[in-house]
Amino acid sequence: MTFVALTIAGSDSGGGAGIQADLKTFQELGTFGTSALTAITAQNTLGVHAVQPIETDIVMAQIDAVVNDFTVGAAKTGMLFSAEIIEAVAETLSRHERIPLVVDPVMIAKGGESLLQEAAIEALKERLIPVAALLTPNIPEAEVLTGISIVSLKDMENAANQLLQMGAGAVLLKGGHRVDTPDAEDLFLSADGECFLLRSKRIKTKDTHGTGCTFAAAITAELAKGAPLRDAVVTAKHFIHAAIEDGLYLGNGHGPTNHAALRNRGNVEGKDVELIGKR
Length: 279
Prior knowledge:
By secondary structure, the protein is an alpha/beta fold. Helices cover 37% and strands 24% of the residues. It is built from nine helices and ten strands. The strands form two sheets. The chain has a six-stranded mixed β-sheet. Helix 7 packs antiparallel against helix 8. The longest helix is centred in the C-terminal third of the chain and has 17 residues, at 229-245. The two termini are 32 Å apart.
């Protein structure tokens, strides 16, 4: 059986993030990748140099074309850019049978450029977060969405609970931006009370372009194959840890991760990721 995943996101001409990273990840994890393009970026490891959003009727037509023909097992959203595109995506998805949706609230590029208009934040809260099976913000994105300053694990818990109150089925709050711990700690919290930490050693590298896209895409691929959400998150953490650790060292700025790293390791999930507090 061939499993199908859908990404609704922007294009990264540098290949490290966005649609390109998502499709590479889907393929690496044994799913057939489909896509709906929301924006075109002129982008490389040094930053985003130009952005051209796609017209909303074309965004909607892409989603319809995929979902009407393929049995999509799971979908993810990435860069959506504007309130109009968010509304269009939400409206189109609502016309189809409910598909597990991973919402990666992409707001800021690695180089600091804004990838989400200010007016779009409220649309994200009102239209997409309530239908998300999983929301995957990093700390800066969670701070924007909640208004909470996050510097500790307790702050992460408070923010994750607030995000759950917005309607998400579960939240994976990525803690890589924290400076109070030598580890990278991601907090998972679901509406039904499941809570755990994923802890891994922090990797010293500047080459982390596209990590959020890749992590969310890996979760989506696993959900498309029928994995329970907890298992999908754990597998994706192994995938992204390997992708960062076995770097490619491309470009002159924030380089891309190595999407083939886990496969090159023989698809063996090592002991570099610790699951804490599962219940």
